[in-house]
Amino acid sequence: MDVRKFSIPEILFGQGSLKYAALCARRLGADRVFLVSDKGLEEAGWVERFLDILREERLDWVYFNQVCSNPRDYQISEGVRCYREGGCDVVMAIGGGSPMDAAKGIAMVASNGGDVQDYEGANRIQRPLPPMVFIPSTAGSGADISQFAIITDVRRQVKMSIISRTLVPNISIIDPELLTTKSEELIISSAIDALSHAVESYVSIIASSLTDTQSLKAIDMIMKYLTIALQDRSMTALEKLASACSFAAMSFSNASLGLDHALAHSLGGKLDLAHGLIHPVLLPPVMRFNLPACTAKMADIGEIVLGRRRRSAKATALEGIARLEEFFAGLGISTRLGDIMDDPGVLPQICEMAAGDACLVTNPREATVEDMIDIMKASW
Ligand SMILES: [Fe+2]
Asked: What SS3 state is found at 243?
């Protein structure tokens, strides 16, 4: 049997867990916190509430909000400057994938030096990072759990995948109450991102029994609870979504991802598209492409999606993929590439860049640039 590692943070989960954020930071030696968030969280009132929690624990802080979606390399450099000038000791982030990825990038460069580009790829971080405590405000990216950080290189117009066990935060505080202020569109795009994490990690060539359980459970729960969460916004349904996202993150953090994410990073970097809106377009065709290399596992996914098996593994897998497409269309989101981008002339360049993405290494079927162009053209 192969030997596998499974790395996750300490996790506080449940409604109201946000109030323990300052205590967690204090426990990790904080005197002066470096807090990363963004305008959206400020407008929803979460940043002020968070600062109150820091005040009650008598913690000092430096607040950094110069982060946009698809965080940029120059924002990391600015964050590092603020972190160092502020004499901070613990990095905290409250927000979606963008503030959390930015916080990881800042912690990484502040402690290891150089530029964020120096760490692109897998296992290139040598020195330990400052302690990190993250509070996710969406059920999607899993950046509060994963060993991934995705940062855009502005000059090359590409989203860099940075993967290292040192990027796993020390503590993740998952309070589903934060989901109550999210728009329907954000809840959908985040959940579909988590669904792609679960699917891609389940068929990854380094998946193991430790990750398989998490990924299958995540697929099951997202299919069951996303629609309910959108309809009633109940804490029960939001908690289920938050759990599902965490399971998907535990899986992909340890089994990595695949072709859908390699293309999504390249496409998102080139065109600055919302990450979660790319998967409904690319995940089904990528699953069909991968099918010959992992038919039995695709059938497992099909069985969960359909609630039963068909006459053969291949039939179950194909019908499951078709059902996923119906599920996406039923959520009112675009499922054709032509709906989310204008110029098909950039597809070869996007696929060339995707060929260098670290997520491609664990895809179950080898994909050439020509294969990727075919997949994208077919989904136009
Ligand atoms: Fe993702």
From this structure: helix
